[in-house]
Amino acid sequence: MKTEKNLIKATLKFRKENKKLTWFYSASSIVFLLLFIVLTIYAPFLWLSYIFSIGITMMIVRSFVIYHDYAHGTILRKSKLAQAMYFIYGIYVLAPINVWRRTHNYHHRHIGKFFKPSIGSYPIFSKEKFNKCSKKEKISYLLVRHPLVMLFGYIFTFIYGMCLYPFISNPKKHFDSLISLLFHFLYIFLIYYYFGAHRVILVVIIPHFISSALGAYLFYAQHNFPDAKYKSDKEWTYEFSALESSSYFKMNKFMAWVTGNIGYHHIHHLNPSIPFYRLPEAMKSIKGLQNPKTTSFSIRAIISCLRLNVWNEELNQMSN
Known about the structure:
Layout: H1 2-11, H2 19-42, H3 46-72, H4 80-92, H5 97-110, E1 125-126, H6 127-132, H7 135-144, H8 147-151, H9 153-169, H10 175-195, H11 197-221, H12 238-244, E2 248-250, H13 253-258, H14 265-270, H15 279-285, E3 294-296, H16 299-306, E4 310-312, E5 317-319
Parallel strand pairs: 1-4, 2-3
Antiparallel strand pairs: 4-5
Helix pairs in contact: 2-3, 3-11, 9-10, 9-11, 10-11
């Protein structure tokens, strides 16, 4: 425990943001996102439109991670311009900031516990609890964790989970969820009306489908991997959740750039106040963070993660 506390203390010096660098990364990601949208619509050749469509996808992912840092209060905390920019961005990506902040903060406070409600996280049942569930409860649990649900994260995670369900549950509290839904379908209609169905597919469907699927899988695999450890509420500690329930996602430099260093997830959970661009620096400087539990985009790693369903208390590991 003393070692874990010392690790958190060692990360504190990496919390300070470079405002100029933050604004450069934040603004450039939004500008490139808008640029790729325009280029996809007006590209003179269809093959170019497909390339620019992938550009939209990449910038949605990158800007989302930066948005995620803003929602934590890690960057641009007092900026009114950033507040407006990321409010609009949250509406655009079907993750209004009120819903995202509430669910994601809950996730940080409780990830690594297998008896807590699955707010902002994929549910984790112990094997014992799963065996005691009714058939309906088992199907519901396995369905939420099913690879197809991740693949169609655009519908299940964002349209339903971030917008439709919160608004139905509490219309006054989550009125921005309705705004997000209305904007999204108005956006689709306007592109269809002025540029046709093909541009809808290239500008909206492909980018949102791929980015949502990637985001859903990353969110899953960062906490559901073969070496992950979970505990009951009484045994759980915040440091444990970062070091034992969160992974370092190995990826090449290009994917690390696209995903805004979210692969350094064990460090992010240990101290979410570290800006995304300082996470590699923190890992390089702190020896205690250099041997984390890992996963990757390899086929073997993906299959290993997706096979996991429950926490086996007897084996002290995730199992199928």
